[in-house]
Amino acid sequence: MAAMTLNSVNFGAAKAMNFEYVGLKMHQNITSARPHSVKFVPRGLIVNAEAQGEGPVKKLGKSDEECEAAVVAGIVPEAPPVPPKPAAPAGTPLATPLPLSRRPRRNRRSPVLRAAFQETSISPANLVYPLFIHEGEEDTPIGAMPGCYRLGWRHGLVEEVAKAQDVGVNSIVLFPKVPDALKTSTGDEAYNDDGLVPRTIRLLKDKYPDLIIYTDVALDPYSSDGHDGIVREDGVILNDETVHQLCKQAVSQARAGADVVSPSDMMDGRVGAIRDALDAEGFQHVSIMSYTAKYASSFYGPFREALDSNPRFGDKKTYQMNPANYREALIETRDDEAEGADILLVKPGLPYLDIIRLLRDNSSLPVAAYQVSGEYSMIKAGGALKMIDEERVMMESLMCVRRAGADIILTYFALQAARCMCGEKR
């Protein structure tokens, strides 16, 4: 069929438009005042179908059999000509075609083809939104993390969750900024049923019953020492005594309504102990996302500012993993699987893509990755300085983490990225 044209189309003003179609059986006058407001008014027959430069085009009135017979007889209907071969720019060398049986660029030559063969996809459902909460009513900006706040648990948090759900992000993870007066060397506030986190969980579950709530299981927000475990007087982090406290913390969070408890402390044996504690209290349905490969990384700085949880002394290298180690992640993976973990997490994300892939290739459990505060802040800073395209780098970084094998990604970009996926402007 010859190409059709549209005549008298003016999207800038209210004006009647003549649309040219071939073979219309019902006929209308079509008028429009705006490009996205088309009004159809049933009228009598008005058809103005034209082929490009050929005048009116009419059906020949032939049956299917007659059309087929004509083609068999060599009477081929007219169609647009073969397009000319595009010319190369002047000075292009005359080269003999390379003897290639495969040319991968064939599958990349148009947006439609690239979309058809895209191997990795990402959606808001893959994102978990980390949110900082505090006892205050105002939302306090976090200097090192532009766009992030310590949210008031009764107001700002509820509003932020509503925004996230509007664009398909239905999973969050909570991190509390605990008043200094409640911090102790043993972190007892961690399992207070009326503490900030349990209160917040109950509030969110009341307002958003289908919201998936992940929690952080560790003592550092509650410890006067700023460590993830109980500190002996000689500076040693006590393992088994810490695990005892973590079990009580996990049960308290489950009692409040948490869907997934996430031990981030890196103590030995804590996954199995938490699983036993949850099951003993009737919380067999509560999942455990273990921070399986949490490295002693320098990318955590902005997070510690957000929670005011820097260690009072030393570092966390006796329990978090050495960034130089690869095989050690397999040891942690096998232990967590055996102890009953439901999800395995790698932290940080982008600098540790090889570890994400290692866990993906060696476990059938879901794999999570945490795009941490330092990764977020670097992208934000680069965007603010116009050194990179923030939005494109954000989306590329998340896609890379997915490509490495992560099923879900904890990211402070969750809301912004989901809005991009939904076609909204920032």
Task: Give a brief rundown of this model.
This protein has 426 residues and is α/β, with parallel strands linked by helices. The protein is built from 12 helices and 18 strands.
Cross-sheet strand order for the largest sheet: 7-10-11-14-15-16-17-18
The main pleated sheet reads as: 8 strands, parallel, barrel
Shape: elongated
Give the number of DSSP strands: 18
Description:
Strand 10 (171-176), helix 4 and strand 11 (212-217) form a beta-alpha-beta unit. 31% of the residues lie in helices and 19% in strands. It is elongated and about 95 Å long. Helix 5 (239-256) crosses helix 6 (270-280). The longest helix is centred in the middle third of the chain and has 18 residues, at 239-256. The relative contact order is 0.10. The strands form 4 sheets. An 8-stranded parallel β-barrel has the order 7-10-11-14-15-16-17-18, surrounded by 9 helices. A 4-stranded antiparallel beta sheet has the order 1-2-3-4, with no helix packed on it. A two-stranded antiparallel sheet has the order 5-6. The chain has 12 helices and 18 strands. With 426 residues, it is an alpha/beta fold. The protein has helices spanning 64-72, 111-116, 156-166, 196-207, 239-256, 270-280, 301-307, 328-339, 353-362, 373-384, 390-404, 414-421, and strands at 6-7, 15-19, 28-34, 37-42, 50-51, 55-56, 127-134, 140-141, 149-152, 171-176, 212-217, 230-231, 237-238, 260-263, 287-294, 343-347, 367-371, 408-411.
Which features would summarize this protein structure in a list?
426 residues, alpha/beta, eight-stranded parallel beta barrel, 12 helices, 18 strands, 19% strand
